Every structure is written in structure tokens, then in C-alpha cells.
Amino acid sequence: MPNCFTFPVVIKSCGKINASVEGEEIHCVLIKGGFRANPFVGTTLIEMYASGGVVGAAYKVFGEMCERNVVAWTSMINAYILCRDMVLARRLFDLAPERDVVLWNTIVSGYIELGDMASARELFDEMPNRDVMSWNTMLNGYAKNGNVEACERLFEEMLERNIFSWNALVGGYAHNGCFFEVLGSFKRMLVEGDVPPNDATLVTVLSACARLGALDLGKWVHVYAESIGYKGNVYIGNALIDMYAKCGIIENALKVFNGMAVKDLITWNSIICGLAMHGRGVDALNLFHQMKNTGEKPDGITFIGILCACTHLGLVEDGLSYFQSMVDDYHIVPQIELYGCVVDLLARAGFLDRAVKFVKMMPMRADAVIWAALLGACKIYKNSELAELALERLIVLEPKNPANYVMLSNIYGDLGRWKDVARLKVAMRDTGFKKVPGCSLIEVNDKVVEFYSLDERHCEREEIYAALTGLTELLRSSGYIPDLMELGTGA
């Protein structure tokens, strides 16, 4: 006969696979067997009902328990948190006869999930016997809710830090787009040396290198990861492929890919999208067929890479065939990004009418990316009529983005319609917004330097402009003539 150790395992399994009917049947069986009062069984029942959103049934179980230990109280409070009912969760917390550090962390996490960092911090300050996980919970809370400064201050207050503390700081910077700070905190972590980085740390750092174009540091992380035992780690391998591809070294990305004994879907997607991004559409399509032969099932991101490859190769009909295969063969519901890829495929190939017709047939409204793709194609094929339509849509979707006016202005300039160019300049000025200047990132002496077009504030502007002048003269001596008709490009 099943006993008090059997039932929790089966009940937990019911919760994992959302088998609510079977869970209720087992509940009936254990009541008949006399296990209703068992706190271990009762706690598991609370968790099962809570995972299914049946918080009323969970509370009924809690109320029928003769002996409620701190684990049962924690499970019931967590049940209310899962239902986003912090009022009842806090009421039970205040009534709990015993509170251990897990229960305190649970209620603090509940407030963090709702974005109520003030209440979370208030409880955190009241918490007795805080452990390092308590601090990490608050760190992650500040990072998740976008308060990087508070995350930094709390990190500095910590007397003890573990790998999750460092990952919370590094991940918090990455989550909020502070990629320079990601690299800085990683270097500090290595210098202090108390806690070695793990694969999660290295993946975040490699992603930051990819975003900043910090190739030299990315290469160093590659060697370092292998030296500390992460050679063959699939997560680091995936991050390396992405980093090398985005930093322009696709051959290194292929070497990492070919050297991986274990490949998952992200591995295949990273290399296929990387090859497509580098214009190596044939290689991307060949790898896609290899992927299918290995039995790996593609997803929407795979097909974004495939459609991008077809766009670079001008394979319009093949791209449309892949799009239909995605729906028919793999039952993938296309998201707007995939529809955007098809619009770009048609528009770049010059089939502007087909692209507009496709936009009208989409099950959702076209976003700014799709209309911008059409506007860009209009410049190539000098279609001012469609460009005006695209700009109308973009003004509604992105009223604060003057770059759209610049694009149409360039089209008018190519057609010699100078009155329309002047009219658009006035319209762009009346918006009160300026086009964001071009920004360059260059890695020098293990640091990533950022500067903008016509940047007079940079501390090394004299050296920068001297180098740019020399490069311009060198280009002109080789026969390059800059296109000065590109208005307001910020290049």
C-alpha cells in the first residue's frame, strides 16, 4: 500500500504536468487511507493546487491540517503569491507562528514579482538572520525592476558574496543595457578573485562583448573558459558563436560550431543566423538541411535566419516556400518578425507591389520595422509614392523618430524633387526632435571606446579627427568619392 512517502511524489508529478483531475483523485485516495493529517502530504497538496491556480482548494487543505509547520505556512503563502494576491499572502505571513529565512525570502520575492520594491526593501531590512540568498534576492529584484543604482549600492553593502551575487550584478547590468559595466564588473570579479566565474557569468560577458564589438576581450574569455574547464560547454559554445558572428569573424564561429560535440537548437540557430547575417546564404541553407537530418526541430528563429539567407541570395520563391513549410510542416505560428522577413525579402528584390499586398494580408498590423523596410526598398527603387505611404504609417507608429523623414528626403533628393526635400526638412524641424548621430565603438588597449559623429566632447577628439582625415585622404587617393547627397545620415 502507498504510504506518506509515496503520495507526495505522485502528487508533485500531477502538479508538474497539470494533471488536475488525477491529482484530485489521489487526494480522495489519501483521505480514505488516513493521510489527511500528514503535514508532508498536506504541503505537497497545497503546492499542487497552487500550481494549477486553485488557491481555494489549497487553502482548504491548509485549514484541514492538524499540524502546520513552517514549510506548510511557506507553501500556502507562496500559493497566494502565485495568484498575485499579496494582501492575503502578507496577512498569512503576519499570522505565521514561526518564520524561517526561507519564508522571509518567499514574501520578499512576492513583492519583487509585483514590482513593489519599497515593500520588499522594508521587509528585507526587518529580516532577522539574513543569509546571502536574501541579499541575492534583493539584488535580482533591483536588477529586474531597472534600478541599477540600488543594485550597485546593495552589492557594495554585502559582507559575503557568492557566484549568484556576482551573476546578479553582471546580469542586472546586461538586463538594463549597461554593457560597459558588464565588462567592468567582470574584470573586477577576476581581480578580487574570491569567487571564480561560472558558465552563466561567462555567457553574459560574451553577450556583452558581442553587443560592444569587444572582439579581443571575447577571444580572451574564449581561452579563459577552456582553461578553467568549460571546453565543450554548450551554453558557452553558443555564446561564442554569437559573439564571433556579431564581431565579424564568422570563420571562428564556424570553428566553434564544428568543434562542439553536443549541439542544441540555439547552437544551430546561432550559426545559421550568423552565416545569413554575413551574406553566406548558401552555407546557411546547407546547415539548415544538416540540422533537419540530425533530427533537430527548427523554430521561428531558425526560419528568421533562413529567410534572411534567401533575402541576401535573392531567392524570393524559395523564401516563400520555406515560410509556407514552416507553417505546414512544423506548425509554427508566424510572429510579426517572420512576416517582416517576408516583406523585406519581397521588397529588396523589387517586388514592392507584392510586398504591400502581403502586408495587407497579415493577421496583425504592420509595425515600424516592416514599414521602415518598405521605405528602405523605396529608396533603392526610387518609388516615392509608396515611400510617402510608408512615412505616413511611420509617423503614426514612431512620431519621435526623425530618421524616417531623412529617408524620404533622400528619395526626393535622388529624384531631384528639391521643393519636397525642403518641405520635409521643415516638417522634421517642427517635430522638435533630432536624428540620433552615428555612434562608433572601437576596442583599444583592452577597452571599448565610444564616440559619436561630430563629437566635440571626446577627450581625444584631436587624435580621432586626425585619424579620420588621414583615412578620408587615403580613400580619395584610391578613387573613392563620398556621396554628399545623403542628407543627415550622421555618418
Automatic annotation (TrEMBL):
Signal peptide: none annotated. Keywords: Repeat. Pfam families: E_motif, PPR, PPR_2. PPR repeats lie at residues 100-130, 131-165, 264-298. InterPro entries: E_motif, PPR_At4g14850-like_plant, PPR_rpt, TPR-like_helical_dom_sf. One of its GO terms (molecular function) is RNA binding. GO terms for biological process: RNA modification. This is Chlororespiratory reduction 4. It comes from Ficus carica (Common fig). The lineage of its organism: Eukaryota, Viridiplantae, Streptophyta, Embryophyta, Tracheophyta.
